[in-house]
Amino acid sequence: MTEKKDLFPHALYIHIPFCARKCNYCDFNSMVSGTQTIDRYLRALEKELNILQGQYLLKTVYIGGGTPSVLTEFQLEKLLSSIIEYIPTSEIQEYTCEINPGTLTKDKVVLLKEYGVNRISLGVQSFQHRQLKLLGRIHSGEDARTAFTLLRTNGFQNINLDLIFGCPEQTLDNWEHDLMAAVELDPEHVSTYALTYEEETPLALDLKNKVLHKLEEGVELEMYKMAIRYLTRNQFKHYEISNFAKGECECRHNRVYWENKGYIGVGAGAYSFLHGVRTANEKDVLKYIHGIDENKNIKSFDECLPQNQLASETIIMSLRLRQGISNADFHERFGYAIEDQFENQINRLLTYGLVAYEDERLKLTEKGLYIADTVMTEFL
Ligand code: SF4
Question: What angle do CA 333, 338, 343 make, to 5 degrees?
């Protein structure tokens, strides 16, 4: 057996850049592709996974996209068996796969279970026809309910529902309806994201051409507050700016990102972050496949972060967690206190009541939470 070269626990992200159709708001690295390209991509992924074999002690695996569930049953089995071949899944605590409700079948659910996937992230976004149509989603609210039930009855005990708020035409009542529908399903985790209009997406163009109108910022903030109120009243813990979990079901994989710890990404455009060095794979799917086939370097980018930038990013990411960042942990990692680098900024934020110290942890206050992006820029 290959000797483990790095025993620090890492998270592994596997990118599947294919979708059944491009959603109107999406600027993720995803495309609609034919079977042949997908098959070639899966072979390339397998090769990349093979290179990683035995190198790291992995604790979480996350298959994201794109839409991993757009793979046929045959392709999905190929992917899952490649993963199990190169990653000892017995050591993995959390193994997530993203699912689009419009692409799930009973056979895919059975495969996911059989190969050890123990967490599902279901891209519901909304339960309402008009919202789903505006977003360009391929599924209905009913499809989301059916997919959830299929997953639950086949033994998945850790399911996240992704919801989007702040859509054009959405009202506070609409949003409450979506929150209620989500809670009725009784998931373990809910993520709520404010819609963003990414350049060049159909939604952004409709906005530019005044076909659609953006919600007022105040309404969007009310929606965010409503999500916090509604979900916390229903036994969810608000543990991260956009994330809510019941019991022990906080997402371990994403926590690695929020704590700015090491992770490895495989697949087109996937980022890795190891020992202060950030790299990204070639984003273009065909170039990625070609690079792997030809045993070429598939990294399109790498940067070694200086210590002060690493510290700054760690604070920004950790402040996303409601528990904030521990000064003791920070000191242990960087050899100095947070104030040594950011004394003026912290004093200013404390004065405005946007951050607070609690049990030696620096965290956003409720006021700071609502303008988190502005607060974070102080640490750049
Ligand atoms: S399913 Fe997700 S990744 Fe695919 S187009 Fe829609 S938002 Fe983008």
Answer: 160
Q: Considering only CA atoms, which of 312, 321, 307 is closest in space to residue 361?
A: 321
Domains of the chain: 6-258 (3.80.30.20), 307-377 (1.10.10.920)
Closest-lying ligand 1 atom to the alpha carbon of residue 100 = 1
Residues 103-126 have a mean pLDDT of 98
Residue 1: pLDDT over 60: no
Q: Is 176 helix (H, G, I), strand (E, B) or coil?
A: helix
Helix H or strand E segment including 312? helix 307-318
d(CA 158, CA 143): 19
Distance 344 CA to ligand 1 centre (A): 41
Q: Using CA positions, which residue lies closest to atom 2 of ligand 1?
A: 66
Rounded to an integer, the average pLDDT of 131-139 is 97
Q: Which of 16, 25, 26 to mutate to test the pocket of ligand 1 (most atoms within 8 A of CB)?
A: 26
**pLDDT exceeds 50 at position 2:** no
Pocket of ligand 1 from Cβ distances under 6 Å? 19, 22-23, 26, 28, 30, 65-67, 100
Angle between helices 285-293 and 35-52 in degrees, nearest 10: 50
pTM above threshold 0.70? yes
CA of 98 to the centre of ligand 1 (A): 11
| pLDDT for position 8 | 65
Residue nearest to atom 3 of ligand 1 (CA): 66
Residues 6 or more apart from 184 whose CB is under 8 A from it? Answer: none
CA dist 15 → 94, 96, 130, 331 (Å): 17, 12, 30, 34
